[in-house]
Amino acid sequence: MNNQTITRADLSQAVYEQVGLSRNESADLVETVLAEICKALQKGEMVKISSFGTFQVRSKRQRIGRNPKTGEEVPILPRRVLTFRASNVLKERINNEKHAED
Amino acid sequence: MTKSELILRLAELNPHLYQSHSEQIVDTIFEEITKALAAGQRVELRGFGAFSVKQRKARTGRNPRTGETVHVDDKRVPFFKIGKKMHERLNGIESTDDED
Asked: What interface predicted TM-score (ipTM) does this complex get?
């Protein structure tokens, strides 16, 4: 049970059970929430979910990288990366339940 | 965008929902992800990204201000890896004038 992976289906199931909407609608709503977060990030907006964490898009400049196998220099093109900073609440919950297990 | 803005947005897009539903939906999603991570599970959302938990060993740290050594317990830290599609969306054709 510990190595199980949670997916969209599990999130939809939770919404279905807790909010009392149909299964189909629950799935659609989970999808909408993820899509809206994506859209905001795409616009370069920061997404701040209190007591969970913050998603932020950062722009990286071009730099010279090296193929570690061949030693060859290759340019790493400018790109946008996404960082997630977990809130203290999330960090605490992840560690507290560990102590509960022990 | 904050969580409350996300809740408002979801309500706006689904006028038949009660605002309280919208709030419950968003809260449930992040609560489920948190619960899974606390249980040591991985959360994989295709096209978005994956959340997992990494184990950090105990170590001896140092207070950067005083130079004093301090013991840091082993701990678990949440980790997020961006999904392929999301990465492509952030780096693809950036000027799709797909407002709101």
From this structure: 0.86
